[in-house]
Amino acid sequence: MSEETLASSRLVAARAAEGQSLSLSTWSWIGYEVGRVPYVVLIKIYIFTPYVTKVLIGDPVMAQALLAGFAVAAGVIAALTVPFLGAALDRMGPRKPWIAVFVLLEIPLLISLWWAKPDRSGLSATTVISILALLGLLFAYAEILHNAMLGPSVGIRRAGRYSGISLGVANLFTVAIMIFLLWGFALPGKLHGLGVPDQPLFGLSQADHDMERLLGPFIAVVVFVGLTGLLRFAIDAAPTRETLGTAVRSGLRDVLVLIRSLPQQRNILKFLIARTIYGDGLYTLIKLEGIYASGVMGWHALDLLAFAVVKIIFASLGGLLAGVLNTRMGTRRALILELCCTILLLVMVLGTTPTRLLYFWQYDLVAHAPLWSGPVFRSWPELAFLLISSSMTAFAVATTASGRAMVVEIVPPERLGSFLGLFHVTASTTAWMAPAMIGLFTAYFHSQSLGLIPVAVLLGIGTIGLLFVEGGDRHGAKQRSGIGRA
């Protein structure tokens, strides 16, 4: 099959999606994202992993060491395999069968989390952490392939809009789940009124942490429903009749050719560098927001749960905002604006403490009466921190959505899997930069606020780098690629 025929066959599906409005293909692509994001938010960040750390293991230091060790192992495996997976599937064409394989491997692992019992009569802590690491690897594989389907399923011209909409809808669904979990399982017996039940729903036990353990089976169902729609309705890349063995061998060669040819792909290389720099700062910021709020504002469990709910609501709005900005301004300009807003809001967050508002206004907690009688966010600095930090999250999510759309718009469609894999590897191999600089600044200045200055610097450098990138305008991006196949 000639290169021209190969490239043309890959664009058939994308063009089929271009002429439709919000088609079943688009909805099904969004639906899979709606199933994937709750795993990230509820399992990895806010509920299940903290349960493993605080309850199942009980020793925060040992838990952090175990989680870090297994995460590093999974990250190394991903870095060594993701580019070749993407390149091989570029050769074969369709991504849906392989997404199905990874999801069907995820489902029994998710279900098994029910047996992560607090009395350790079920799965051991090491087994649970191993399962979490393997789930992270499988979800990373499926995410790369799902992102590679954005062009065919939605249409390249509409990728910017629906990349943002999908994250917005997924976060709205996630916050609905979290509010239901708080209302039906976490708050009964602790908060009276507002329709909160006296006992957890369905006879579940708070002492046995049934809510946390049930998340795995619940998300298994959600992911499976999302997969079903994707398999049934999403437009995929056209098949090329290459066998798996041939595709793997050719994919290995393609990755080497891709890396060697990057200096000739100056536009993509510039975006790769900019995205790697701002991405390192952005993802580190997202991971540290809860720790920063807890340390600087002195917030505890209930404050942080309420904080998380508000931030996820803003995250959903950020995804929707990205869809609008990408369409109105063009993806590259939207990405630059979103990063600038993130930097500005980060600087504002760093200047807000329980006794200081935006650097300049001192606030006496004794002299000022509480704003209301509720259990959380009772002072102006707390309320300001909540709103500024949540707005920052909205623009951070918008940046993620626009960055994904930018990849689809500037990378040749027939090489999208390879480049997504390469971008994943560069992000993984440089993920130490921001944490290392934050650690140095925090230790030197003995300040959590000053410790986050490197994040603003990385975001700024990445933003400047984007000024030199072409493509991502309102009518589709310029695609400059002379990469050949060996």
TrEMBL record:
Annotated organism of origin: Bradyrhizobium ivorense
Protein name per the record: Major facilitator superfamily (MFS) profile domain-containing protein
GO CC, alphabetical: endomembrane system
Membrane topology annotation: Multi-pass membrane protein
InterPro entries per the UniProt record, alphabetical: Atg22-like, ATG22/LtaA_families, MFS_trans_sf
Subcellular location: Endomembrane system
Principal place of residence: membrane
Alphabetized UniProt keyword annotations: Membrane, Transmembrane, Transmembrane helix, Transport
Signal sequence, start to end: none
Transmembrane feature ranges: 61-86, 98-116, 122-141, 162-186, 214-235, 298-323, 335-363, 383-407, 419-445, 451-469
